[in-house]
Amino acid sequence: MAPSLTKWDRLIRYVSAKDGKVRYGEPIVGDSKHPDIDALALKGGLKVKVLEGPTPIQAAPTGEEDEVKELLGPLTPHDVPVIRCVGLNYKTHSKFNSLQFSPNGSILAKGANSFSSGNGLRPPQKPDPLLQNQPSSGGHAAPDPHPTPGATAV
Fold first, then answer.
1. Domain map (residue ranges) of the chain
2. In whole angstroms, what is the distance from residue 24 CA to residue 147 CA?
3. Residue 126 pLDDT greater than 70, yes or no
């Protein structure tokens, strides 16, 4: 078995119920192998082992425990400076824009401003039928309202 790159098994980024600071943590979920972290956070009282470090990958347990006030997306645009993708699902976009479709996909790169770490929990939204056949806007996201401490804008 290969050594782990991280000192945690499940990373979350959250707003602390104790002091309102944005932190990394590992949920304390008991014996459950696949707990619904979103549901636990919405219910309230989700406890975490506090993690600290210069990056999410390097975050390590501090020995402290905390309680989650608000669950955030685990990464910020600062953590993901370039997004690399293999596009295999753009057949309809190609057709809509009268472009040739490649069955092998294409390599796509997006900048950090295209990344959205989420703004906490939101229930899924029902798609608007009037927008179903519209081309994509590119998915540019607004800045994260809860940046991780020490993160700088890219």
1. 12-72, 77-115+125-131
2. 11
3. no
